[in-house]
Amino acid sequence: MEKEQRNIVAINASKKELFTANNGYKSLQKRLRAQWKIQSVKDELSVEKLNGVKLWITAGPREKFTAAELEVLKPYLDGGGAILVMLGEGRGDEVRHQHQLPS
Predict the structure, then answer these.
(1) What is the b/e burial string over 47-76, where b = at least 16 CB atoms within 10 angstroms of the residue's CB?
(2) CA-to-CA separations, 96 to 13, 14, 16, 52, 85, in angstroms, rounded
(3) Phi-psi region for residue 60, left (φ > 0), alpha (ψ -120 to 50) or beta?
């Protein structure tokens, strides 16, 4: 019998995020581990890195995402993937403009 594949949550750590899988999400990981596989994305975002990922999280990115990385997210979202982007207070407009995200 084939082992059931668990859903994957990918936590980004490639843009000097304020919170990463090992820093700030430990209690969240404990709660999710039974049903979800948690992985850290430390390199540039790519289609391969998002393969099988149900939810991609970035929390407080301090570096810009490249145009190529943003292009990877479009088909990921169109294919049913989900993203959670968390920003510091008052930084939404600044980051949206900096990363060329839609309003």
Answers:
(1) eebbeebeebbbbbbeeebeeebeebbeeb
(2) 19, 18, 17, 26, 11
(3) left
Residue 90: per-residue pLDDT:
61
- For residues 46 and 42, what is the distance between their CA atoms, to the nearest angstrom? 11
Q: Where are the alpha helices (DSSP H) in 18-101?
A: 26-32, 67-78, 92-98
Number of H helices, E strands in the chain: 3, 4
Q: What is the pLDDT of residues 18-47, one digit of tens each?
A: 777 777 777 777 888 888 898 888 999 899
Kindly list the structural domains of the chain, giving each domain's residue range(s) and its CATH number in brackets, ordered by start.
7-98 (3.40.50)
> Does residue 39 come out as left (phi exceeding 0), alpha (psi in the -120 to 50 range) or beta?
beta
Residues forming beta bridges with residue 37, ordered by sequence position: 8
| Listed residue (27, 51, 26, 30) closest to 41, CA to CA | 51
